[in-house]
Design goal:
alpha/beta; Rossmann fold; DNA polymerase, domain 1; 3 domains; eight-stranded mixed sheet; 18 strands; about 45% helix; elongated; disordered N terminus; Poly(3-hydroxyalkanoate) polymerase subunit PhaC; acyltransferase activity; nucleotide binding; PHA_synth_III_C; PHB biosynthesis
């Protein structure tokens, strides 16, 4: 064998020296990390959770109903009530600012409430599903409805809280506008979940626990969850922590998660036993055989839009324990989002907050907005002119809507405008070159479209009472605005009015929705003066819809 192809020969001394270098390097790194421990312990101790500001707006027994401070100037009309599980603390949904479901919803303009159950006392041992659903959740929903002046609100349930939210929605469907379920156990028939196996009636009697302890100790539940993956929960994660001791943010995040995992709460004995027996062991909710408080929980009553948020790697509530439920509810509007995450990862992983929760926030918005004035007028325009009017409430700010006009030849106009009746009508009239009028009657809303060929009236039917009232108010506002001339605006004389009309600003409604720069250029005036005219025009038009 040529010399340059021979394998390298290492003498024992070389091997020993190399080993010593490796040992020395490892020891040095270990010594360095050891010096970091006091600082990282201090970092961990300073890690705060549940930082989003809120106020308690309702209390009953131990529970507190929280309302979170808005993070946007305007909020969407229909609020969201988060129903948390009875196990652990709800701040996993607000663990830290960049991993907070509460913040993601607030940032999207939603008005967010959350039920914090707190810990039951010995006096609460007999609390059942009837108490939690027909009393606590019902009273909290009523409180949110009253505060928001809504007949129905959105509900988002997590895990066991989702299962109880389903029961509530089946019993009181008229109070739920849209129902979101996150990692919610709903179907138990060999779905592969560890808890389903452990809770099988052949192996486990929940009454033996409640007869021993009364309320089920939080430490007992925490130990069970810990044993679902003992190596990962007791070895691997600490090895990862050691490897990343130099990362202050990682240590704080780790500490927050550990705080939540160890912050377990007891569960009322009766509701625990009833939940295990009726939901897990007998599968009565899915089979539509569940009764609570002597009343049948008929899941076919769930006729509102339904969203299921599932984790692909959830071994606590696998997707197979949730998805079949979509087939037994009464709604045809059922959506499922599966995300590559575990049970808790749905709430606190970076990816979920980047990809998943903005989509969930948008889903709630899309299923919360009543038809705008543009939608009602659009039905009439489509019938009269063959022009399609589409609105998208998820584009623009909270108080804006995107309106798109199109016909068989393609798009005619597209604009993001304020949810102001004068702005909407003005945009549609200008884009189509028509005059639009609205009137209400027993059959619905009459949309009058005046073109060069005459006036065509179309009646838009099947409009709910709330929408009818909203459109009536909007139509009245537009009519009042249209009764004024530009000269009626204080400060606008004949000369300024002539210049404005020549530039296409022909009415008070058009002036009210114009911008300062355009008005100033058209009238050959200062923007400050133009802004004053616009404010006065808006006063004549009346309050705008937000």
């Amino acid at each position: 064998m040529p010399t340059d192809q021979r394998p390298e020969l290492r003498f024992p001394f070389d091997i020993l020296l190399s080993s010593q270098r490796t040992v020395l390097q490892t020891a040095t790194e270990g010594l360095h990390k050891t010096t970091l421990v006091p600082n990282r312990l201090e970092d961990a101790a300073s890690a705060d959770v549940g930082q989003t500001p809120s106020e308690v707006v309702y209390t009953e027994n131990k529970l507190e109903l929280l309302r979170y401070e808005s993070l946007t100037e305007h909020q969407h009309r229909v609020p969201i009530l988060i129903v948390y599980a009875l196990i652990n603390r709800p701040y996993i949904l607000d663990l830290q600012p960049d991993r907070s479901i509460v913040r993601r919803l607030l940032e999207a303009g939603h008005d967010v409430y959350l039920i914090d159950w707190h810990e039951p006392s010995e006096l609460d041992t007999s609390l059942s599903l009837h108490d939690y659903v027909n009393r606590y959740i019902r009273n909290c929903v009523d409180e949110v409805c009253e505060r928001s002046s809504q007949d129905a609100i959105n509900v988002l349930g997590y895990c066991m809280g989702g299962t109880m939210s389903v029961m509530y929605a089946a019993l009181y469907p008229e109070k739920v506008n849209a129902l979101g379920l996150m990692a919610t156990g709903l179907y138990f028939d060999d779905t592969g979940g560890i808890l389903e196996l452990w809770g099988d009636e052949k192996h486990y009697d929940p009454r033996s626990v409640t007869e021993t302890f009364g309320n089920v100790p939080g430490e007992f539940l925490a130990a069970g969850f810990d044993q679902m993956d003992p190596v990962a929960n007791n070895v691997t994660k600490y090895a990862h922590l050691y490897d990343r001791l130099e990362n202050e943010d990682f240590v704080r995040n780790f500490a927050r998660m550990e705080q939540w995992l160890s912050d377990s709460v007891d569960v009322a004995g009766e509701v625990y036993a009833q939940f295990l027996e009726d939901i897990y062991q007998d599968n009565r909710l899915y089979e539509n055989e569940l009764t609570i408080g002597g009343e049948h929980v008929d899941v076919t009553n769930i006729d509102m839009p339904l969203l299921q948020i599932l984790g692909d790697y959830d071994n606590l509530v696998p997707p197979e324990a949730s998805k079949p439920f979509n087939d037994v509810v009464g709604t045809d509007d059922a959506t499922t989002i599966e995300y590559p995450s575990g049970h808790v990862g749905l709430a606190m992983s970076n990816g979920a907050h980047r990809d998943l929760w903005p989509e969930v926030a948008e889903w709630f918005l899309e299923h919360s907005e009543r038809p705008t004035l543009a939608d009602v007028i659009g039905d009439g325009i489509e019938e009269t002119l063959g022009v399609d009017v589409e609105t998208d409430v998820t584009v623009g700010d909270v108080d804006e809507v995107e309106v798109v006009l199109a016909d068989d030849d393609g798009e005619i106009a597209r604009e993001v405008i304020t949810r102001d009746p004068t702005a909407i009508e003005t945009f549609l009239e200008d884009a189509l070159g028509v005059e639009i009028g609205l009137d209400t009657g027993p059959e619905g809303i009459a949309v009058e479209v005046e073109t060069d060929e005459g006036v065509v009236t179309t009646v838009v039917k099947d409009i709910g009472e709330a929408i009818r009232t909203e459109v009536e108010e909007a139509a009245e506002e537009v009519a009042i605005a249209g009764s004024y001339d530009l000269e009626d605006v204080n400060g606008i004389g004949a000369t300024y009015a002539k210049r404005l009309r020549a530039a296409g600003i022909e009415s008070v409604p058009e002036l009210a929705v114009a911008d300062d720069a355009r008005v100033a250029e058209a009238a050959e005036a200062t923007e400050e003066l133009a802004g004053t005219w616009i404010d006065r025009a808006r006063e004549l038009v009346g309050p705008t819809e937000k």
